[in-house]
Every structure is written in C-alpha cells, then in structure tokens.
Write a structure and sequence with these properties.
Chain A: Its main location: nucleus. Chain A: It is found in: Nucleus. Chain A: Residues 289-306 have a biased composition (Basic and acidic residues). The complex is a heterodimer. By secondary structure, chain A is mostly helical. Among the domains of chain A are: 19-89, no CATH class; 201-231, no CATH class. Helices cover 47% and strands 7% of the residues of chain A. In chain A, strand 3 (80-83) and strand 4 (86-90) form a beta hairpin. Chain A is flat. By secondary structure, chain B is α+β, with helices and mostly antiparallel strands. Helix content of chain B is 31%, strand content 27%. Chain B has helices at 10-19, 40-52, 73-82, 146-149, 151-164, 230-236, 285-312, 315-329, and strands at 30-34, 57-63, 86-91, 99-106, 109-122, 139-143, 171-173, 179-186, 189-200, 208-213, 217-226, 251-253, 259-261. In chain B, strands 1, 2, 3, 4, 5, 6, 8, 9, 10 and 11 form a ten-stranded mixed sheet that branches. Chain B starts with 9 loop residues before the first helix and ends with a helix. Classes of the chains: A mainly alpha, B alpha+beta. Chains A and B meet through helix 1, strand 2, helix 3, strand 3 and strand 4 of A and strand 4, strand 6, helix 5, strand 7 and strand 8 of B. Strand 2 of chain A pairs parallel with strand 6 (139-143) of chain B.
Chain lengths: 335, 330
C-alpha cells in the first residue's frame, strides 16, 4: 500500500468516527454569561415561542441542555488536578454579587491596657504554657488546674510568723483569688463600656493588701456616702479627715490658647442673649409633624371605611354611639 | 464580638463563636416552613426543596401560623434561633392557592421576600428515573430576556441563585457534575425544571451533555414582593476589605493580557565586566596584588546589593561564578 492511501484511510476513519458523535458546539445570538464559581449560566436570548408552543417539555430541556453544554465547555477548559482517583478542576471565585448573611466583622476595640501598651511600645512576650516544677520534678501547667497556684493543690499552708494563728489561711487565699477575679471582671466591663462610649463607672476602692492613709480616708468617705440619703444624716467621726480631690473640679480654659475658640465661646453666649425667638428643636418639630400626618391619615382611613365597606362601618358605628350615651348619662345625673 | 455576659463554658463559647459574623462566611442554611394551612402540593414541594439543599437546610416539622408579608417578627425569630438566613414558606388559602414565599435575611432581618404561586407541580416521584446524589452542587441555568430586563425578575434570579447554589467550593470533580436546575421565564411565568446530566463521548476532550428530567418540575407565578432598598442591599453585599486582593506595584497588563513588570536595577559596574581574555590585557603581578585588596573592599561594601541582584536576574550569577574561579586561582 502507498503511504498516501494509508493517510487517507486514517483521515476518513477519523471523520467517520467524529460523525458518529453529536457536536458539542452551541450557536447563540447573544453570548451566554457564565459564572464558573457558582456553576451558573445565564442565557439572555429570547425564546422561540413557536417551538415552545409545539412541545413545551422537549424545548425546555433542549434549551437547558445547550446552556449546560456551554457551561461544561468552559469548565473542561480549566486546569485539571488529580486528587486520588478523581479528576478535579479548580473553580475561580464566584462573580455574581450576592448579599452576605451577616455584616462584615469589626475588630475588637482595644482595651485600656492595649492602648497604653501600644503607646509605650510594650510588646507581648510569649510565655510557655508549661513550667518546670522543682518540687514535683516534672512539667506542670502555668495557669489553672494542677498548676503551681492551683488552690486545690495545697493540703498544708504555713502560718506566717506575724499572723494571727487562729486565722484560716486556706480561706484567706481563696478570698484573695476571688477578689483578683472580681477585679478582672470589673476591668473587662469597664473596657466594654469605654468601647461603647457609655459612661464608664468609677472603680471606687479596689481591695488592697496594705491600704495607705489616703485609701482609708477614701473608704470612710465612700462608705458614709453609700446611704440612701447620700450621707446627709451621717454623724461625723471624731477627728474625721477632710478629704480633698473628691467630687467635680472646675476646669478652666488655658490663659494662653487659641483666640478663635475664645471668640466662638463669647459669640455663642451673645447670640443666645440677643435671640428674640427661642431656638427651634428640629427633632421635636419633625416628630410633631410626622405625628400630625399619621393622625390625619388614620382619620381619613376611618372615614373612608365608614362610607365604603359594610363590615367596617357596622363595627365603627356602635362605638361612637356608646361613647355618646355615656356622656349623656353623666349629664343626666348632674341635672 | 464583645459580650457583656460571658459564656459559661467552652462548649457554649464555641457555639456562639460559630454564629458570629465571619470574614469568609459559612454556607447559608435554609428553613423550610409550613404555614397554618398547606396543600398536599406545597408540603411535597417543601420536602423536595429541602432535599435539594439538604446538608444546609432545616425542615420545620410543625405548622407555623404566620403571614410573612404582614409581620416578619416570628420569621426573624426563627432565623435567629436556627441561625438560618434563607427561608421557603409554604401556605395554601382560597385567596392565594399553593403559595410559596422565598426569602433571605441579613443579620436576621428580612432582606427580600418574593411570593410565588405554584402551578403544574410534578413531584420527583412522578419521574421514574435515577436521581442525583444528595448534596451535589447543582448547575444553575437561567433563560429568558426577563431575567435581564425586569427588576423583579432580576431580584428573583439573584434570590434563586443564593438559594440553590449550595456551598462555595474551590474545586469540583468533573465526573460528579450531576444536577442541573433550569429556570425559564416565559409568558409571565417562571418554569423550574430539574435535570440529571449524562455525559457522552463527543470525539474531543469535552463530553457531549445530555439531560433527563428528574423532577421536581413546577411553574411559578410572581405574586407579592418585598424587596430590599438599594441602600440596604448594597450594605448587605459589602465585600470585606481584608478579602480584597492587594494591588501589586509596578505590574501592568496590556490588551493581550501579557504581563509587564518594571524592575529597578542598580547601575552595573562596567570596570568589573568580564571581557575576552587576551594576554596583553593580563594584569602584572603588582597590579593583581593591589587589585586583591581593592576587590576585597568593594565586595564587602556591595555584598547587600549583589544579593538583591542575584535574586532579580540569573544573568548576574555568572559574574559571581567567575569571581569564585578567580579566588580559587589565587
């Protein structure tokens, strides 16, 4: 056989082979939009209504087939990866804009300490979770259960030399821990209040090991003022200290400051004095306007019902009648 | 999220964290709710919609007497309770027979709702064919001019995509593409059909697609709508800044999508250029001694620069090699 004949035969065979299969090409007037990330194809072409009327089911499935074919043609062009025995393609990001389920998360607002640390450039040091215990000769957790400071661990506690021998050292330690926890909780709440721009409550007095003179004075003041009458009827203690720096302090503007600020301040006062009419409260006015509109709308609706449907009018009529009757009755009594 | 009341234990904490807003969101879960009165059709349809969305769906078993278009509070409460942001509500009344409401939530408040009347419903069981595997990501087809021109149809399309697209995945198995959901807008109706894909040989790498109908199949008619305002929708579809791709400097693409980059190089020292070796240009012994000391100095001074250069271009490594050879000779 000649080589050209063989080539011809091979080509003919290939052509016949191809004829056996149906084509994968699809003709569309307007290009079909495809979002591979969502496996989505949108065909904006108008439907052939004649074909649709003749055979609904077949026509719909043929349209769907064409769109699917177009989607798959694109899909099969993507780079292929083999995962175990399966052939997979990597999908691009979805392009269709869909709303989120929840809002975009915000960063947690910095605590007072975090702000301070940032200002001072204090970096967090990573501490290992376990520490070496000399007594037990093994690694134990730094915090919490079975750690060095675990309250359950001590079965014996030393009574310090200058301490009261009858004092329970266990309960003392436990209480100290509770107070530390409470302080931490208070600070957490204060941080939240600060972040939400609420009024941050004062700490008052935190428990301390050895309170100094000023602290004791402050404690006396606070306890006296913690009554229902804010300490109005409390007796004075003998030699009660006069405590300074409690309550509000007047703040003065700096003597040397911006001239503009001072000018504005004075101008505001003068404006207020020279104004004839009182200042308008915009929100109040708007609210009043809205309320009036709503009332008038409601009244109109009521009147409309009276004239229109039977159901509404029947219900509304006895109500007004009833009110009139009571009024009349009252008058009658007076007479 | 900042909570005033702290979770009591780790399990609760984890559960709460799961519900917190996330940068990359989880797949939306849907609620299938039966109204006060439902027809047989609607009940069957709800179960079949539930099947289509299965791992990410919750079917409420009891009746829930509510009117989504009049009062959304109980719907919103259910969304909060189940942490679900999609819902399909089915009901049946004389005024609105075979009623189906598709809707979605943003932050557990209704974003948009579209009420549809169901006609010509044919269940999955009416088609005697093998069905798709549960949990496959369906391919969605939308056909018809209306989906591009009409405002309500546009919103409905968006809602349906959101409802049926399933999880966002980064890879799919080519052989596993099974389910096709097609929505066609004709004659003021939306025809929903579902098909199973059969892949056939085509003579090329891409297979020829054939479809067989598997159900459910139904026609939908738009009734009432409650769509989100443009402003709210925009707020809801905000893309987080952290997920946006950072712009790379000094890289541009031309019309043919070829990448152009600008690379900043230091000026090349031509005195050190290796040229053809000729005996006449060879340095004398004295010169080399001087050069040795000088060379050492320059190397120290420019070591940083050299490293950078070697990263940028391979051509520069030859220079380094020749220097190394020199050193060995000496």
């Amino acid at each position: 056989m000649d080589t050209s004949e063989i080539v011809d035969k091979v080509l003919r065979n290939a052509a016949e082979e191809e004829k056996k299969y149906k084509s994968i090409e699809v003709q569309r007037d307007v290009e079909v939009e495809i979002d591979l990330g969502n496996l989505l194809a949108c065909d904006p072409n108008a439907l052939d209504l004649k074909k649709y009327r003749v055979n609904k089911g077949d026509y719909l499935s043929s349209i769907a087939r064409d769109a699917t074919q177009l989607l798959f043609n694109q899909l099969w062009k993507l780079p292929v990866h083999r995962v175990e025995d399966a052939i997979t393609v990597k999908l691009p990001e979805p392009t269709t804009v869909l709303p989120r389920e929840k809002r975009v998360p915000k960063d947690r607002p910095a605590t007072k300490w975090e702000k301070y640390a940032k200002q001072k450039g204090i970096m967090n040091k990573k501490k290992s979770t376990k520490v070496w215990s000399e007594e037990e000769e093994k690694w134990i957790p730094r915090f919490g259960y079975k750690s060095k400071n675990d309250l359950k661990k001590d079965w014996l506690l030393e009574v310090p030399a200058n301490a009261d021998p009858m004092e329970d050292q266990f309960s003392k330690k436990k209480k100290a821990k509770q107070e530390r926890v409470a302080k931490n909780e208070l600070q957490r709440l204060r941080n939240i209040a600060r972040a939400k721009k609420r009024k941050v409550p004062g700490v008052g007095l935190t428990p301390t090991e050895k309170p100094d003179k000023t602290m004791v004075n402050k404690a006396i003041h606070l306890s006296k003022h913690s009554t229902a009458s804010i300490g109005k009827f409390e007796n004075k203690l003998p030699k009660e200290p006069l405590i300074k720096n409690l309550g509000k302090r007047r703040k003065f503007e700096p003597v040397m400051g911006s001239l503009k600020k001072e000018q504005d301040l004075q101008k505001n006062i003068l404006d207020g004095l020279s104004r004839n009419r009182p200042e308008m409260n915009v929100t109040k006015a708007v609210n009043r306007q809205i309320r009036e509109e709503q009332q008038s709308a409601a009244a109109e609706k009521r009147e409309g019902r009276k004239g229109g449907k039977g159901k509404g009018s029947r219900k509304a009529a006895p109500k007004t009648a009833g009110r009139k009757r009571t009024k009349g009755g009252a008058r009658g009594k007076k007479r | 999220m900042q909570r005033i009341v702290k979770p009591k234990n780790q399990r609760v904490k984890r559960a709460l964290e799961k519900r917190d807003p996330k940068l990359v969101e989880n797949t939306k879960t849907s609620l299938m709710i039966r109204g006060g009165h439902t027809s047989e059709k609607i009940t069957a349809l709800l179960t079949e919609l539930h099947m289509l969305r299965k791992p990410h769906s919750q079917m409420l078993k009891r009746k829930n007497i509510m009117r989504p278009f009049e009062d959304q509070t109980s719907l919103e409460f259910m969304s909060q309770k189940n942490d679900a942001s999609l819902f399909a509500f089915g009901s049946h009344s004389k005024k609105r027979p075979h009623n189906l409401v598709f809707g979605r939530m943003f932050e557990h408040h209704t974003l948009d709702m579209i009420e549809l009347g169901v006609e010509n419903f044919k269940s999955m069981h009416a088609f005697k064919t093998s069905k798709c595997t549960s949990g496959t990501k369906p391919c969605l087809m939308f056909t018809g001019e209306l989906f591009d021109s009409d405002h309500i149809h546009k919103k409905l399309k968006n809602l349906l995509i959101d409802f049926f697209r399933g999880p966002v995945v980064d890879a799919v198995r080519l052989g596993g593409m099974e389910c096709v959901l097609s929505f066609t807008a004709v004659d003021e109706k939306i025809l929903m059909r579902s098909y199973k894909v059969i892949l056939k040989k085509s003579g090329s790498r891409t297979p020829r697609v054939e479809l067989t109908e598997i159900g459910p199949s139904l026609d939908l008619v738009v009734r009432r709508t409650r769509l989100a305002t443009q402003d709210l929708f925009k707020r809801a579809s905000k893309k987080p800044k952290a997920l946006k791709a950072k712009k790379k400097k000094n890289i541009s693409h031309d019309v043919f999508k070829t990448m152009h980059g600008r690379v900043h190089m230091e000026k090349q020292d031509l005195a050190k250029l290796q040229i053809r070796k000729v005996k006449a240009l060879k340095k004398t012994k004295e010169e080399t001694k001087d050069g040795k000391t000088e060379g050492g100095k320059t190397e120290d001074g420019q070591s940083g620069v050299k490293k950078r250069r070697s990263l940028r271009s391979k051509g520069q490594t030859q220079d380094g090699q020749s220097q190394a050879k020199k050193k060995r000779k000496e």
